[in-house]
Amino acid sequence: MRFPKLVVFDLDACLWSPEMFELSERPTSYDAKAGGVVAGRDVVKLFPGALAVLRRLRSDPQLQEARVAVASSTTEPAYANRCLDVLWVDEAEGLTVGEMIHDADHRQIYPGNKGRQHFPALQKASGVAFSDMMFFDDCTYGDNCGDVASRCPGVTCVRTPEGMTEALFQAGLDAFAAGKTGVVA
Q1: Does residue 29 sit within a domain?
Q2: Of 39, 58, 103, 117, whose Cβ has the fewest other Cβ atoms within 10 Å?
Q3: Count of domains in the chain?
Q4: Nearest CA to 80 among 113, 37, 49?
Q5: CA end-to-end span of the chain, whole Å?
Q6: Whole-angstrom Cα distance, residue 174 to residue 49?
Q7: Which of 99, 92, 21, 17 is closest to 54 using CA atoms?
Q8: Is residue 38 part of a domain?
Q9: Distance between CA atoms of 58 and 45, rounded to whole angstroms?
Q10: How would you write the pLDDT of the chain (185 residues) with one tens digit per residue?
Q11: Which structural domain range is residue 121 located in?
């Protein structure tokens, strides 16, 4: 079976909620009682499916070689980076979401177009061909998956309108293994 070499996630409304622009204050620290990162009166939490997918990327022997990247066009990159650095994937292991990301160049977090800017930058930084990438995005403010599919031919793109789920991740893996590219779900 064929597996992606680079798995790319959008952040807001895909991996977590609320979105960075909605926060009342800058994110500070993880609060175990609240189950997320405290940002004033708000708490940024990973979707349950996103947490399960991140854990699977870490534990599934067939996926352990896949690198993780993020592509987010948030207007609050410092907020997003703070959340990545303190949201736990596995608290017992001391593993945060940010620690799963290969290196700083795999954090494409800035206002910009994902197909025109984020993905070409990821391709350049990683050396991974578009045909070896899989992308997940909620696409609620525009069709980022469609944009990436048209500007970066070969990427397997999956829409996550209700946030990342295990079922959508598996659908992406199945499409990728079958050689399907573009928007597959």
Answers
A1: no
A2: 103
A3: 1
A4: 37
A5: 20
A6: 17
A7: 99
A8: no
A9: 19
A10: 899 999 999 999 999 999 999 999 999 999 999 999 999 999 999 999 999 999 999 999 999 999 999 999 999 999 999 999 999 999 989 999 999 997 899 999 999 999 999 999 999 999 999 999 999 999 877 899 999 999 999 999 999 999 999 999 999 999 999 999 999 98
A11: 6-16+45-183
Q: Are 14 and 139 in contact (CB under 8 A)?
A: no
The whole-angstrom separation of Cα 62 and Cα 59 is 9
Indicate which residues carry an active-site annotation. 10, 12
Q: Which residue has the tokens 């592509």?
A: 71
> How wide is the angle at C-alpha 6 spanned by C-alphas 46 and 151, nearest 5°?
100
Contact 182, 135 (CB under 8 A): no
Q: What is the CA radius of gyration of the chain?
A: 15
Q: How far is CA 164 from the centre of its chain?
A: 9
**Residue 57 maps to a domain:** yes
